[in-house]
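User: Please run a holo structure prediction.
Assistant: Happy to. Please share the sequence and the ligand.
User: Here you go; the ligand is iron/sulfur cluster.
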Amino acid sequence: MGEKTRIAVTPPIQVGGSLFTPEQLVKIGTVASTDSKIEMTNFQQLYLEVPLERSDAIKEELEYSGLEVYPSGFVTKSLIACNFCKGAEKGGLVAAQVLNRAIAGIVTPTPLKVGFAGCALGTSEPLLKDIGVVKMLNTFDIYVGGESKGIKASIARLLISGLSEAQLVPVITAIIDYYKANAKGKEKFSKYVHRISIEEMQQITQTIVSTTS
Ligand code: SF4
């Protein structure tokens, strides 16, 4: 094989969680060449090595089979959502899908993970992600700065509570834009939150929220 590139493949956000159909797994195996590496990441994406010159065609084939394809590397990962065990409506499935479409693949200083939980039980571990969204009855709380890696792992802190569904995308894209504009080089999001302080982030977020209310 000539030059290779790596793409991130995931099933859509759905009730039941990160579910592949047998046909989709066959499709992934078919488009990958025999010497391709397929990696299971810890953020609900499969990394698939494909020939660079065929990557667009492969992406189309995978999407045709119902899968989603994103860039790998220094980008916002596709939303790491829960299983929506309380059902689509109670868990905010549509809000999660809309948010995912808005943020997945945005180029960022370091890989950025955004978690989404359909209730306060938080089984998708949103407080261990860079940004965590938790649905609370009819509104959403946002947490920032979680870090699951290393011996200095930390829990995300509450940034803002009581957001409406319509406010989720503008607020979270603004948080990401602000991080992109103000990170020092390849500064990790959790370090950046610690440096600029949760209080400053809360002020910025309040300004965004007041323009969306
Ligand atoms: S976070 Fe809540 S709604 Fe989502 S799977 Fe866990 S318990 Fe169910």
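The domain at 4-71 is CATH 3.30.70 (Alpha-Beta Plaits).
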